[in-house]
Amino acid sequence: MWMDQAGVEADRLLNAPLTTASELLCFGVVGAVLISRRPDLPFGWLLGLGAAANIALVGIGVPSLALAHRGHTGQVLAWGISLGVVQWVPTALEGIINVRFPSGQPSTRLARWLERCLSYGIAVALIGSYLGNSVMTDLRNRGQPLHNHRFLDGTWVTSVGNASLVLIPLLILLGILAGIGVIVRCLKATGIERAQLQWRAAGAAISLVLFPFSFAGLTSGAYGALAPLVFVSTLAIPVLRYQLWSGHRPPRRRRVGPVVSRRTLIEAQEEERRRLRRDLHDGLGPLLTGLRLNLDAVQAQFDSNPERAREHLATARQASAEVISDLRGLVYGLRPPALDELGLAGSLRLHLASLVKDSPLTVTIEADESLTLPAAVEVAVYRSASEAVTNVVRHSSARRCLVAIAFNGGDVVLTVADDGRVSDTWHAGVGLTSMRERAVGLGGTFIASSGPDGFQIEMTYPRK
């Protein structure tokens, strides 16, 4: 095999074969998992980049060296051997990951500058060291009989490239500072953010303690093999366990049709505010103005023209009745009063009975009379059930409809099912869309399905 033929020389190119193999396996596997599970975070992509560096080293650098020892020469082999410079890249990338952990972005201005220095420094040092001839020179200084040369060797480009090697220890130092930053942020954090940071902070602490021994060559090869495993483990565990993003727990999976975006929900709220403003301005405003004018007229004519004053008083009384009626309508639009008077089950029975009194539809309600829910969930269930039954009355040939409210674990489940026939080409209208928005807006789910037995809507809402 080519590794056997390269012998000790290939090992020297790799410096620590176990470390390279461990980095390749750990960075590659965990990077792929994180990319598939959390592609929005940069950690998986950075691990993948580190694994790619090791693939280039093992897949191109070592075979090129093995062929050179067999006596092969040429530009391609020389450039392949020069890939030995990438062996420090995974370690440098760990610094960027530490700076960006846990949210995926640097959290302070200093962290942003540190991340920029690491990113640009890695790019410059990698390009410069690859254009330089440090690998070939090191191998020849160790007595390697290599006769491979590149067309750049001996030019000013090579000299500039070799000068860039001074950046590598600086990048290692910046990576150490990034690890210290994780520990400091962990000590200052509280709650779930501290729980996320403590894993990576523990890994950084282990690396910092062992770094001087490793630098002095006092640790065994086992440490080099275990170091990548410790790093990726203390990174992957909090990402997968806490589904990291800005320190918040993720929303539960929602089985909805079209995704209702945050923008859609905000637009719906703004539309509701606009409706309330319009109703207050165009409805109540003129009524209250007219009421005041009539009362002023009553006061002005109370002594001089009592008959006229009584007419104005009657007009004011009518205006006040209209004001009360409009206010009741606005209040009902915000929260039906029957919910407070009769409870959810009782108010639904009363309201749904009024909806179907002139239709052949029979509605059966299965709900606990003492059912109590959070105010927002209660209103959402009431309005969704009302809207669903209204759709059945208007658009279905159904004769029977079931409205059921039950609990499933930590969720309340609203089911509305009817026995009407549904066209194979039915489309979700405004009613279904508003029901979906209510459920998703509260962190629940929405499922609409049709079959030979009729149409069914199932909505879930969190109880807390």
Globally, the shape reads elongated
Provide the β-strand percentage band: 5-15%
Query: Approximately how much helix is present in the residues?
Result: 55-70%
Average pLDDT level: 77
Largest sheet: 5 strands, mixed
Helix count equals 16
Number of strands: 5
**What class would the helix/strand composition place it in?**
alpha+beta
Topology order in helix (H) and strand (E) letters = HHHHHHHHHHHHHHEHEEHEE
Q: Give, in spatial order, the strands making up the sheet with the most strands.
A: 1-2-3-5-4
> What is the straight-line distance between the termini?
64 Å
Q: Poorly predicted ranges (pLDDT <50, ≥5 residues)?
A: 1-15, 248-260
Query: For the CA atoms, what is the radius of gyration?
Result: 36 Å
Summarize this structure briefly.
The chain has helices at 2-14, 17-37, 43-69, 75-81, 89-100, 109-131, 134-141, 156-163, 167-188, 191-215, 221-242, 262-301, 306-334, 337-356, 375-395, 430-441; strands at 362-366, 400-408, 411-418, 445-451, 454-462. The chain is an alpha+beta fold and 464 residues long. It has a 5-stranded mixed β-sheet, with helices on one face.
Structural commentary:
- The structure is a single chain.
- The chain is an alpha+beta fold.
- Helix content is 67%, strand content 8%.
- The protein is built from 16 helices and five strands.
- It is elongated and about 120 Å long.
